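INFO  loader      accepted 1 record
INFO  loader      residues=611
INFO  predictor   begin
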Amino acid sequence: MNQSYNPFDDEQKNYLQGFMMGADVSRAVRGLPILSGSGLKGTSIKVGESSALTTEGIAGPEQIHREAQDRFLANKKKLCAEEQAKRDKNPLDMWNEMLAHAASDKFPKGTDVFLFKFQGLFYVSPAQDAYMCRLRIPGGILRSDQFRGVAELADKHAGGYADVTTRANLQLREIGPKDGVPLLMGLQEHGIIVRGSGGDNIRNVTGNPTSGIDPQEIIETLPLAREMHHFILNHRELYGLPRKFNIAFEGGGSISSLEETNDIGFTAVKVNEEHATTEVPAGVYFRLTLGGITGHFDFARDTGVLVSPEECVPVADAILRVFIVNGDRTDRKKARLKYVLDDWGFDKFIEETQRLLNFPLRKFDLTHCEKAAPADRYGHVGVHPQKQEGLNYIGVVLPVGRLTPAQMYGLADIADSLGDRKIRLTVWQNLLLSGIPDDKVAEATSRIEKLGLDWKASNVRGALVACTGNAGCKYAAANTKLHAGLIADYLEERIELDSPINIHLTGCHHSCAQHYIGDIGLIATKVEVGEDDDMVEGYHIFVGGGYGPDQGIGREFKTSVTHEECPAVIARLLLTYHEHRMSEQETFVEFANRVDMIELNKLYDGNLVMA
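INFO  predictor   done
INFO  writer      dumping tokens
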């Protein structure tokens, strides 16, 4: 019996219907011959006939980017490859190309690899011959039905798992070329819009995962994160920035949003009657901080500016427009907001921002602001009471952020039957189930354990962060998720910690796992071993990084340690801390910053108790 082979099912055929028409429109606009029998043959399409097809200049919201590029060109400077790619093709108008690639079962090539990121699809070759899809989940909080929908799509169109990221977000991996478009459409049908989740855009807007339920929060951040998210989605000129951009809102919750690591951080404070003025009445405000990028050794710095909650989005918009106009379009390494601030200084940048606003930016003494209580370093794990009496949230530990669809279905079921139907993702690569009544906590924790997950993990595993690593990222020099798991296994068998230790493993200089702010941070490298100088995966090890009250960039402790040696080195380091700390109350970061690096190495070398 003869049967013709067709690689597409009916759903995929429906998703791809009309791609040939779209491809022919694209070809016609470029003056190329019509290839299909779509009915366009003989039709004349003139370039410039409508603003959407104009190639001579840009008439529309994107004009601000073209003018910025033109200024560099007028000064005899060459645009970097990514800027030229954005100049040649608007990444937001590549749906036809994406349909054509899906229909031909092919991945993009050349600069199209970069441009596809604007639509949420990352071709991650050579790490994997596949797409990765990064979502947009404002504030990191989504409904249980959306979480269940992502699980279904991960099973159907991706590798059968999802990763929680360090921006309180989700990623799907191992997506084939013909599955990219169906996946994007499926996500949108669940109310998840991924446009601008990659490329030179504003990444997932973060806030406190306990927004609305936190007993210590000053203000809820989810409404602001959602407002910022939708503002971005509806302003095309806020895409195609000089480089990627991060925004976070910190409402004083018990679980930090790590706003000081963002390009723009809004940090909630109170102004009491004692310090109130006519211009600044008593109430809740946000301190504006700028320039955070810990991979480049900078935290966001306070600008002295105080903004009301309703002013946050307009102020962020003005800052973005100043960055669009003045960010570097020729050197990717110098194209982040930090470098504009370094060049200009904060005063000039704030002056330029003020020009775009119709209300004054008020300066206010930080010492007259009441700050929030410090975040709970371990608040993202375990059972914690909510501000709603009789209700609790449970922090679920995920093995280096990874979940199977079965686990996602199970967590969604718990949220539906015992909680408030919400899944709250955190920047620590885990999640919270909220709205659990006191008398249902035992049932919820039991069901979590039956899913193969934990809620009371050791202090090591509960504070372990790892980027994707070379199993899925072409930049990474080591398999960070695998090695993180091995480190946790090793430490749990040998050391009982009495305070949380944050261990961050990152695969490359991009520092997606923010190794510089970990108590112990590892950045991957290749290490020479043996007489033949063979290269194996390894790490440089840093200590003493922190955030919030412990804010600081970690210092290098050991260089070029093979991945096989790392667990023992970290164990010995922790034993050294236990033996030489001033008291049980002295945290690791306090110890590491009290003892200089020479002394720390002496204590470590003299520690005869081998783990």
